[in-house]
Amino acid sequence: MENGQQSKESTAVIYREVQVMPLAARREALLLIATLIMVILLMAARFAAVRAPENKITLKMYQQPDRVLTNQAPTLYRSLSGVAGDIIDLRKNNGTWPDVTMLENEALPPFADYFLPGGLRGYAWSRHEGDGWVDYFGVNKDVEIAEKQNLDPLDVSFMLRIIDLQNKEHPHPHFGRDSDVSRRYVYQIWIYPGMQQYPATDVIKKGWKWIISVTDSADNSAGIVSEYPGQ
Q1: Nearest to 121 by CA among 145, 148, 101
Q2: How far apart are the two ends of the chain, measured CA to CA in Å?
Q3: Which residues pair with 123 in a beta bridge?
Q4: Which residues on neighbouring strands pair with residue 134, listed in sequence order?
Q5: CA 48 to CA 167: how far, in whole Å?
Q6: Preceding amide of 173 cis, omega within 30
Q7: What global pTM score does this model have?
């Protein structure tokens, strides 16, 4: 009897209860995960399809997208874009377009060059006023010096043009219509490789390029370009 009882006890230890997830439940979990992934992918595709038309800009022959800018040119482009509003505010407060010295004293880059990388600190800026506009023209005069110092200088001429649409003598082309009374000032940034002389109003004839970004098109009458007076 004792031997039979020991045999039963040893047999009871061998058998254990193990719970296994039913195959149908695992399939349901995998199906749920796959469905969630599919929903996320469809949402991403839908978002891209909706956004795509906003990024499509039809450019004129004298315009170039900002993605063509290389090396340190995007930094200078962003600085000029950001300072345009400050220049307009100073014009409204003082009644005249601020000169380069005032902009430097106001600590506004790129005129205050201590905020810029070393390769951009050699730019010499000058103001040029006309009837209905002002230009801030800059060339890098320290390219050779900066190259010797391994500062990766930018050898591109830049011009920030701010146009007063309420002055009938303002230059063209520009964003927005001449008859649009809801806006007064628009700005644009032109570039030309190398060290150039100030082009005045002959920017297109002299081969300068107007740099355009998606933001420019969205914020300036949906990208409408007036090329001639009265447009």
Answers
A1: 145
A2: 114
A3: 140
A4: 129, 162
A5: 41
A6: yes
A7: 0.71
- Report the C-alpha gap between 72 and 81 in whole angstroms: 15
d(CA 17, CA 29): 24
Q: Is the dihedral of CA 188, 94, 82, 80 positive or negative?
A: positive
Cis, bond preceding 109 (omega within 30 deg of 0): no
Residue at 35: amino acid letter: T
CB 165 within 8 A of CB 154: no
CA distance 98 to 89: 10
Walk along the chain (231 residues) in steps of 10 and give the mean pLDDT of each run: 52 55 63 72 61 59 92 92 95 94 95 86 91 92 62 80 90 81 88 89 92 67 68 64
Q: Are 221 and 198 in contact (CB under 8 A)?
A: no
DSSP state of 194: B
